Amino acid sequence: MANKRKRDNAPESEPVEKTEQQSTKKVKAPAPTKAARASSSSNTSAAPFKVDSTSPITIQVVAGSYDRVLHGITASITPTTTTTSPSKNNKKKAAETKTSFKVSFADTFLFNAHASAIRCLALSPPSAPTPGQKKGGQKVLLATGATDERINIYNISAHPPSAKAADDQKLLNSITPRPVLENPKNRELGTLLHHSSNITRLVFPNRSKLLSASEDSTVAVTRVRDWALLHTFKCPIPKAQGRPSGDTAALGAVPAGVNDFAVHPSNKIMISVSKGERSMRLWNLETGKKSRVLNFPKEVLMEIGEGKHSTGEARRIVWGEDEFAVAFDRDVLVFGMDCRPRCRVMREDVVGTKMTKVHEIKYVSLGKAEGQEEGEEKHVLAVATEDGRILFFDTAEESLIAPKEEAAKEEKEQQVKKHIIEAKTPNAKLVAQLGGKTAGVTGRIKDFVVLPIEDEETGKRSWFIASASSDGRVRMWRLESDDLFVKGDAKAGRQVGELLGTYATDNRITCLGAFVMIPRPEGSVESEYEFDSEESEDDDDSDDE
User: Fold this and answer.
1) Which of 111, 348, 488, 534 has its CA 20 to 30 A from that of 180?
2) pLDDT tens for residues 60-119?
3) Which residues contact 141 (CB under 8 A, 6 or more apart)?
4) Which one, of 22, 27, 28, lies nearest residue 294 by Cα?
5) Where are the compositionally biased (Low complexity) regions (predicted)?
6) The whole model's pTM is what?
7) Does the CA dihedral 234-239-241-244 come out positive or negative?
8) How many Cα atoms are found within 13 Å in the side-chain-facing hemisphere of 256?
9) Closest CA to 103 of 499, 505, 495
10) What's the pLDDT tens digit per position in 508-535?
């Protein structure tokens, strides 16, 4: 990270480099270090949490809303194994063992966090175990950003509430309409005032740093140990070029601000996308300077519906293993490390519906396929849409779907009249879909979190997915290990996943975060009503810098 600099006003405009050499130059991505691989990212599924197949799992879910409320929920998932004995008529058939999952929700905290709508939140990796205990006293930092220009910081316990605390709250649960399992370890630490406009994105690339983006066209780097502002990346404000549809900028001003950014797993490179720009910017996190400006190809933008009368700006961006994905209003482009578009995602004939709005994208690590011993882990791209679905796409080059064959002359004339652009970019393969009308979900999925779980004995991987809709419902899903692997007889784009339960928050949710809580060690004693000092935790964080 760069040294602290005196903050200057962002320049009014900056010329965008358009040389051919620049647009084809390959980005050299450093190999992720061991610490970087263990870091948490809001857009990439973390390392799988290893559990026993018969042990219950507790997931802490945090939801932010337009109603300024920060709602904490625990989802306790209990596996139940049933064995079906063979029938009398078919005694040769072996007994079948089936595992079902039951989820129960409880409120853990309810904060009136901000003075206006909450836009984003981020969860840090858990802190190191307290000295003298194997896994006791670990915490997770929670950061929330809103349209009041503030970033609030909270301490969240990484462990489920103890049995003693549950007994103390039995009386409270008897008079409340919903179960309450409050943990007094969850408390507010303070507020950061590093920005002068709405907060748009928050990310903990590791335990020791917090990165925040805002509509003031800056990305701030904050040190967690003392919450000092280390550096501010200044993005230029674009020139006014007419008034595009949906423009909400003030009279005489232009739409400006950072929509999103993504940090490479090595913690050395960052890409940002901003309002009013048809480009993305690469930043060197070691020097604190801009590295390059990459323009989106005009032809590809026309294919995905970002034509002359659209803003053409990217809304979301996320790093993959050897690629990165950029989400626009109604489509997603996947770029290789040579910064060339590899494929698009939301082609109508592949998705099966008309182009729908994209709200969130994340990469999901599938691990190794059954019987695979060598080779890299497979990844898929998950896309949350307006019609209540989460679509999973295989973006590997060998799985891409070629563009349609050239249309006939008459069809071309009709396409010209209807302003339809002929597709020339390959499309990713649709592997599976979760939710939608088939599963009874019709509202938009505003945000979702993928939590990988791995069986300690068999090494089999599964996923719990927490999704949040604008109607205030939080849904908990479960995916089997084979749901996202396409086999020879498997149907592409098939419906997958099991809905475990739904929780109504009664708030209009805007963002969501979740993590698997660490079980308390046997015999550990922790006072629920005494706050630990932060000195030992700060010392651990300073070692990561």
Assistant:
1) 534
2) 999 999 999 999 999 999 988 777 666 656 655 666 677 888 999 999 999 899 999 999
3) 123, 124, 153, 154, 155, 156, 204, 207, 210, 224
4) 22
5) 29-47
6) 0.83
7) positive
8) 21
9) 499
10) 999 999 999 998 766 555 544 434 444 4
